[in-house]
Structures are given as structure tokens and as C-alpha cells.
Design brief:
157 residues, alpha+beta, Glutaredoxin, 5-stranded mixed beta sheet, DCC1_Trx
């Protein structure tokens, strides 16, 4: 999968409603995470707390277990979405896995070094393999065994 697919015509890329208001609020990035996974939820909670503590604005956080089809405009089905972290930037580009984490880390105080390190030409492929094939894969299997992976949506007639 190309970690930076763009769907510029998607009306919600980089925006989200503000407390039910009709006027959307612009976000630099929109993070989609598996809130049913205790490890994922804990890590995102930590990032949210850091962002709040340091007054970092521009990051929207969405638990993907609250609604089906959130990333369908990018061709990501609900099973694929729970397998990895996904981030949509303000230009509508979908970033998955390590690329998504890098976008988060670039915006958080004390995490810029991790974003830079993870982006190094020879480290990035290793980080991708470690995340995709080991960490995310193990979390997906564990969450599936514990019943924390949403069932696929019912087929439409």
C-alpha cells in the first residue's frame, strides 16, 4: 500500500466539525486509531495529553471503532484500518504506519528527534518492517483473539 495516497476531492480531508457546528475547523492532521486496542488507546492518550499540555493545536483524534467506513474514500476498509495507525494531513494525503507516527511526532514537543530519526533513509525501511510486520501485526492478532477487532460490515444488497 502506498502510505501517502491522496484524495483531494474528499470534503473532510483536514477538516472536522466544531462541536456540532456547521462551520468546519481546519486541522493540520487527522489521526485515526483503534480505540478498542488498549495499547493503541494508551499511546494515543499519551500523545493527546502531551499536545494538550503544550498547547499544540491542529490535531484531530478519531477512534475508528466509533463509525464504519471512515477511510473508505482512501480505499481503506474497516479491517485494514484497525491493523495500523492512519493519519490524513491537511492536503488530504493518507499516511499509514510509521509515516503517520512521524506526522504526529513532528508536531509534539520532545518528539521531533524521533520523527527525524525515523525518517533517516536507512532507518525508515527498518522502522516500517518492525512496525508493520512485527508490532502492528502482533497487536492485530492479539486484539482479534480478544474480540477487539470490529466485525466486517454486513454486505449491502
Amino acid at each position: 500500500m502506498d502510505p501517502t495516497r491522496t484524495v483531494p476531492e474528499h470534503p473532510e480531508a483536514g477538516t472536522a466539525p466544531q462541536n456540532g457546528a456547521d462551520t468546519p475547523v481546519h486541522y493540520d492532521i487527522h489521526v485515526y486509531y483503534n480505540g478498542a486496542c488498549p495499547v493503541c488507546r494508551s499511546e494515543i492518550h499519551h500523545y493527546r495529553k502531551v499536545a494538550r499540555r503544550h498547547g499544540v493545536d491542529g490535531i484531530a483524534w478519531t477512534d475508528i471503532t466509533t463509525e464504519a467506513g471512515l477511510l473508505s474514500p482512501w480505499g481503506v476498509d474497516d479491517d485494514a484500518i484497525v491493523r495500523r495507525l492512519h493519519v490524513v494531513d491537511g492536503e488530504g494525503r493518507l499516511l499509514a504506519g510509521v509515516d503517520g507516527f512521524i506526522e504526529i511526532w513532528k508536531r509534539l514537543p520532545r518528539y521531533g528527534w524521533l520523527a527525524r530519526l525515523s525518517s533517516v533513509r536507512w532507518i525508515k525501511p527498518l522502522a516500517d518492517v518492525l512496525y508493520d510486520r512485527v508490532l502492528a501485526a502482533a497487536l492485530y492478532r492479539w486484539n482479534k483473539a480478544k474480540g477487539r477487532v470490529p466485525p466486517p460490515p454486513a454486505p449491502t444488497a
